[in-house]
Amino acid sequence: MSRPTHPAYRTRNWPAYNEALNPGLRLVISYAALEEGHHGGIYQAGNWIYEDCVASHAFKDGDKLVHGRTMSLRIKRLGMTYAEYAKSLGFEQLPRVHLKRNKYLMPLDRKMRRQIEPLAKE
Q1: What is the pTM for the complete model shown?
Q2: CA-to-CA dists, residue 95 to 33, 74, 109, angstroms
Q3: pLDDT in tens, 23-47
Q4: Which residues on adjacent β-strands are paired with residue 65?
């Protein structure tokens, strides 16, 4: 169920609307998946702060790459451990793929912006 949004908040008063929905939220972090061809152009256009290219990983499940959290939830639902799940697939351990992601930051207040500005890369 979504919360009703007053039309004025959508355009004129975004900070107040955001504070009402998410009290205490000061920073949004997003990652652009390079393996999917995403370089973060939409974040750059929106004046997000580029921090750096960071290492990430995913698990290989057949032809698909599965995020670590997704794999963890999948294994928990089955009531297994990582080792048991890997053995059920015929592996000694689950195959991992190392990835790189571009990390972008969006501060939601001036104090946070000043705090993260030293992290910015070109």
Answers
A1: 0.70
A2: 19, 15, 41
A3: 888 899 999 988 888 989 999 998 8
A4: 60
What pLDDT does residue 76 have?
93
Q: Which of 94, 101, 99, 100 is nearest to 59 (CA)?
A: 94
Strands 64-67 and 96-107: unpaired
The Cα–Cα gap between 67 and 45 comes to 27
pLDDT in tens, 43-66: 999 889 999 999 988 888 778 888
Annotate 31-93 with three-state secondary structure: EEEHHHCCCCHHHHHCCCEEEEEEEEEEEEECCEEEEHHHHHHHHHHHCCCHHHHHHHCCCCC
Question: Tokens in use for 50?
Answer: 């580029």
Select from 39, 57, 15 the least CA-distant residue to 104. Answer: 39
DSSP conformational letter for 24: T
Are the CB atoms for 33 and 103 separated by under 8 Å?
no
Nearest C-alpha neighbor of 108 from the set 40, 42, 47: 47
